[in-house]
# Entry
Amino acid sequence: MLLMRIFGVVLFLIGLWQFYATWKYHHFLTTKGTDNAFSPLALYYGFALGVVAFLLGLGLMISPQWMYGLIQ
# Structure
């Protein structure tokens, strides 16, 4: 049970870091720009990864019992 909460905290922090990295990349794109055609795709998928990690970490921190149902 404690291990699931620790994983939750780690995933929560990874999600927060991903939001920060996405925000910094968005700021870079709006100020300097780039010729890369895949930049918007990287921005959207980075944000989506942050949302998934954030919500999964939050769920594991609050109620880790639901994860046991997925494992067994």
Observations:
- The chain has a mean pLDDT of 89.
